[in-house]
Amino acid sequence: MLFGRNLKGYTAFYLFTHFLIVSLFGNVTVEKILFFLNVYGEGYPLGMAKTFGEAVNKIQQQLKRLEGGGIVASRLVGNVRLYTLDPRYPFLKELKALIARAYEFLPENEKNKYYRLRTRPRRAGKPI
């Protein structure tokens, strides 16, 4: 176990990029948030917290930190604050490339668990 994760099934490159991202941004929660925003495009703290089984406060603190650094931007939609990767961030292209490359090496079970969730309802009458 390292950073609360069982390392079985992880590739060496993923572990390298995981440590690189954690080293760059400080912790595993930020890594999860960046993967989430890269896959879904936007998200809100409660949705991320439910997805990862983390405390909402923990997610909110890291989003506030990322927003302060100019990496993410937020906007209010009704009563919900939505977060996205900031399109004005000077290294956005490079950051997205790094996140996408690291995401490729995530084990399939972790991708399925966190990053392939349905974001809209199933069409009425569609067979399962």
What does this structure look like?
The protein has 128 residues and is mainly alpha-helical. It has a domain at 30-110: Winged helix-like DNA-binding domain superfamily/Winged helix DNA-binding domain (Arc Repressor Mutant, subunit A). 53% of the residues lie in helices and 11% in strands. It has helices at 12-25, 28-40, 45-52, 56-68, 92-104, 108-114, and strands at residues 42-43, 72-77, 80-85. Strands 1-3-2 form a three-stranded antiparallel β-sheet. The longest helix is centred in the N-terminal third of the chain and has 14 residues, at 12-25. The radius of gyration is 15 Å and the shape is globular. The mean pLDDT is 84.
List keywords for this structure.
3-stranded antiparallel β-sheet; 128 residues; 6 helices; 11% strand; Arc Repressor Mutant, subunit A
In the sheet with the most strands, the strands line up as 1-3-2
Largest sheet: 3 strands, antiparallel
Query: What is the H/E order?
Result: HHEHHEEHH
Shape: globular
What is the typical, i.e. mean, pLDDT? 84
Query: Strand percentage, roughly?
Result: 5-15%
Task: Write the topology of this structure.
Blueprint lengths: L11 H14 L2 H13 L1 E2 L1 H8 L3 H13 L3 E6 L2 E6 L6 H13 L3 H7 L14
Question: Summed up, what is this model?
Answer:
This protein has about 130 residues and is mostly helical.
